[in-house]
Amino acid sequence: xxxxxxxxxxxxxxxxxxxxxxxxxxxxxxxxxxxxxxxxxxxxxxxxxxxxxxxxxxxxxxxxxxxxxxxxxxxxxxxxxxxxxxxxxxxxxxxxxxxxxxxxxxxxxxxxxxxxxxxxxxxxxxxxxxxxxxxxxxxxxxxxxxxxxxxxxxxxxxxxxxxxxxxxxxxxxxxxxxxxxxxxxxxxxxxxxxxxxxxxxxxxxxxxxxxxxxxxx
Length: 217
Known about the structure:
single chain; 217 residues; mainly alpha; 9 helices
């Protein structure tokens, strides 16, 4: 619950998951549920699989595997602004986590050794420190992704907070399905799935140069 709370000081509150760029391109309130679903399918599902793989590696103390997962995560994020944002979010999450779990040796070692800190891998390391299992880690990762978009919509569009909460409830079956798939997947790091969300990737390039934006992504 702590890791999925937007008040955790990791910087996630400053990101809309691409919704701000979509709104700038004329997306409306009625488009947000489909945007959440599309982002879960095209982005978060693959990232959740990376997070689960990282959780397993961290739980086993396999630091070299975590560094290999860093490279795999970066290879699956072609947009430079999104790659940079993911690294910042991962670094911020690790900084907060080392305060919450100061005696976790793998967490400290990964934070010291990783020069990339992509968010899915960092999240998996933190999930292991928090004692989450595979399904819990995937569920929290996917929920937090959808919740970030929902929360951003309240600031970007004329939408009631209760409606935004309803979107999350409606997305629950999709989140559960993707979480189970991520938890059950057991393949080498190089064979982990990659997301495909070209409009979010392209929107990030335009958004990165926009003046007066509310969110970093």
